[in-house]
């Protein structure tokens, strides 16, 4: 091979390598990782490849365990990681899987990744963000502190992508060594409403906090707030704001646990004349299979949209009225953000 041909060959290899973005995932998020790759490849074939980088799903982490239950983790191809832009798709849906993923988050920058983006759709301790009395522990701050200790890369602090965090002020719980990027999956359900084409939709929120967080996403749409009050020891839902009679109502919140509040809110809306009630939550937490309330309840939900921010959402969505909205599109669009357009 001539000298110039050799130089050209290595230049092409370097350009190809710089064009690659690695996507690494925890085993519990393989479904979502596969969808993200599909969206990225589709976008790359539909547009000029000059503007699209090649996202590669690298299934290089062996998530094994020792006999005592502690993680036995091995990362393949670590020498090839040097100089790469790496993304890690994480899920902290259970305390049992947090430690093993934190171990990998600490390791990747040390193998000389050029930049590091952590995609953590659900910030699991987000509801424990404040202290109401002495003795309580704000575990949202604890988890934020742990994530803030992930090592720097050649391009500076890692970035952390979270969807619909429970309280926006939690961004200030993170330290200077990580950049939280807080975004919303609400556009996914707005797209579904557009597809359904109803002109008589209004949006309800189960409490004042949700109204403050999400009402701005719905523009001029009529807004209802379901206020919970106590009367003679009973919890009563009071409707405030928009008028539900003759309307299809969508209840929106960031997450659902047992679902009791959503059912009580739906009951009140139907009693006030709503034509139908549907619901949307980004994070379908549903401990102890509490989602089954919505398949057996006397209160009918027309549709209940959830996302795949938590692994068990795929199984839940097999049961009406649940429908799955994948975060893959939103994540893929984020991956093409300004920071990853730079070689």
Q: Can you put this structure into words, describing what you see?
A:
The chain is α/β, with parallel strands linked by helices. Helix content is 32%, strand content 26%. It contains eleven helices and 15 strands. The chain has a seven-stranded mixed β-sheet with strand order 11-10-9-12-13-14-15, sandwiched between helices. A six-stranded parallel β-sheet has the order 2-1-5-6-7-8. α2 crosses α10. The longest helix is centred in the first third of the chain and has 17 residues. The chain is globular. About 3% of the residues have low confidence.
Q: What about the largest sheet?
A: 7 strands, mixed
Shape assignment: globular
Strands of the biggest beta sheet: in what spatial order?
A: 11-10-9-12-13-14-15
As a whole number of angstroms, the C-alpha radius of gyration is 23 Å
Q: Classify the helix fraction into a percent range.
A: 25-40%
Extract low-pLDDT stretches. Answer: 6-16
Total strands: the figure is 15
């Amino acid at each position: 091979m001539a000298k110039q041909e050799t130089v050209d060959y290595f230049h092409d290899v370097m350009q190809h390598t710089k064009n690659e973005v690695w996507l690494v995932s925890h085993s519990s998020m393989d479904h979502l990782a596969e969808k993200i790759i599909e969206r990225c490849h589709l976008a790359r074939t539909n547009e000029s490849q000059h503007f699209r980088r090649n996202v590669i799903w690298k299934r290089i982490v062996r998530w094994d365990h020792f006999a005592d239950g502690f993680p036995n983790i091995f990362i393949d191809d670590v020498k090839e990681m040097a100089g790469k832009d790496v993304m890690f798709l994480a899920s902290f849906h259970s305390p049992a899987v947090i430690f093993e993923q934190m171990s990998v988050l600490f390791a990747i920058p040390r193998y000389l990744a050029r930049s590091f983006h952590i995609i953590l759709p659900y910030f699991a301790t987000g509801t424990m963000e404040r202290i109401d009395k002495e003795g309580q522990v704000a575990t949202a701050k604890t988890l934020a502190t742990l994530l803030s200790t992930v090592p720097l890369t050649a391009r500076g602090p890692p970035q952390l992508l979270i969807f619909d965090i429970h309280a926006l002020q939690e961004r200030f719980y993170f330290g200077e060594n990580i950049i939280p990027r807080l975004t919303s999956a609400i556009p996914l359900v707005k797209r579904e409403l557009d597809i359904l084409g109803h002109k008589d939709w209004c949006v309800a929120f189960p409490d004042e906090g949700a109204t403050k967080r999400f009402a701005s996403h719905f523009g001029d749409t009529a807004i209802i707030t379901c206020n919970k009050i106590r009367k003679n020891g009973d919890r009563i839902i009071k409707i405030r704001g928009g008028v539900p009679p003759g309307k299809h109502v969508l209840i929106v919140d960031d997450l659902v646990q047992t679902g009791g509040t959503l059912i009580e809110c739906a009951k009140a809306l139907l009693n006030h004349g709503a034509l139908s009630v549907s619901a949307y939550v980004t994070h379908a937490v549903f401990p102890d299979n509490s989602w089954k309330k919505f398949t057996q309840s006397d209160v009918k939900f027309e549709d209940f949209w959830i996302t795949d921010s938590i692994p068990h959402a795929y199984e839940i969505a097999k049961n009406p009225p649940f429908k799955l909205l994948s975060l893959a599109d939103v994540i893929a669009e984020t991956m093409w953000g300004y920071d990853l357009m730079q070689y």
